[in-house]
Specification:
- It comes from Streptomyces millisiae.
- InterPro entries: CoA-transferase_III_domain, CoA-Trfase_fam_III, CoA-Trfase_III_dom3_sf, CoA-Trfase_III_dom_1_sf.
- Keywords: Transferase.
- By secondary structure, the chain is α/β, with parallel strands linked by helices.
- It has 2 domains: 263 residues, Crotonobetainyl-coa:carnitine coa-transferase, domain 1 (Rossmann fold); 82 residues, formyl-coa transferase, domain 3, CATH 3.30.1540.
- It has a 6-stranded parallel sheet with strand order 3-2-1-4-5-6, sandwiched between helices. It has a 3-stranded antiparallel sheet with strand order 7-8-9, with helices on one face.
- The radius of gyration is 25 Å and the shape is elongated.
Length: 402
Amino acid sequence: MGDTTGPLAGIRVLELGNFIAAPSAGRLMADFGAEVIKVERPRGGDELRRWRLHEGDTSLLFRTMNRNKRSLTLDLRHPRGRALALDLVEDCDIVLENFRPGTLERWSLGADRLRAANPGLILVRISGYGQTGPYRDRPGFGGVAEAVGGLRHLTGFPDRPPTRVGISLADSVAGLYAVIGALAALHRRRATGRGDEVDIALYEAVYSLMESLTPDYDAFRVERERTGSSLPGVAPSNTYRCADGRYVVIAGNGDSIFRRLTAVIDRPELGEDPRLADNAGRVRHVDELDAAIAAWTAGLPHEEVLRRLDEGQIPSGPIYTAAEISKDPHYAARGMLERHPVTIAPGDRREVAFPGIVPRFREDPGRTRWLGPDLGEHTDAVLAELGVDADRIEELRQLGVV
């Protein structure tokens, strides 16, 4: 770890989380130089290792979400495992966890115990419904949080059941808030010397994205509904089918942009129509506008549609597949397609494209030092740093503690 660079170099994080939420926060901090020690169960490890597993015994999802971390196997249910965890806490800045509320307390690793071991510790807790309130003890995964947080009600078409986005959105957003909370607490600790506890609920992470959903309801009793691919209250902004069967997204909702769009689609009279001079008017006539745009895109292949829109300076884009992302020159130029060798299975080592690091820093940027590690890959090294000798490590291994 001595060659670690990045804006978070020198920060030490103990990650006690599984799946997506806490590990996504740990990944972001590790990307920018923090030393992140991921604690996993001695037998099996993080269940994410087997999610979307196509070959071998460790999924590329795990390799992606846990890059730049050290894997330490430790049974927190065993007294000696908990003792080792507390030894690690003494020299950590941040502890990340996403167990159900009360789990750490049952293991005698609650906030008070951790802060007693390290008064400057920042404990970041992610759970379905938060550490307080009537729902605190309910189990909650990201999909449930999307429903309770209001997002699922708005996702999909009005004549069909609510749908979800194809990623673990709630978990990833909660991970972002975890990093924001941890960094804010670190900043305040510099002035006060005291640690803090950061409480993040998955449903609140989703709810925070819902814009004016509840204010509009509370003030005007406006209840938003599913609107498919359009953006409610903003026009024109939708998805349109082209002659070759491909879809493009066109956002012509700014006043000057709209006038340029009407010229591109050969409907300049719409740009001069006083009914459509501002967004409010365009929203009232959105069906007419969508029909005009759709008629134009239907007559051209998607590449020609996008070429003309680009020339007209209209925000637009294709709906990419993974194959198209992997070949896109802009992704490559921005470092968003990092190629790393990875062992898929014994004897099968391939070079694979992984997502790049976001955000970008001009100076001292983050980097991928290694992919998500094998289970327990760094156990001996981490314990040796605690002063545990090889004989004792072997004893702990025989007992199933590590």
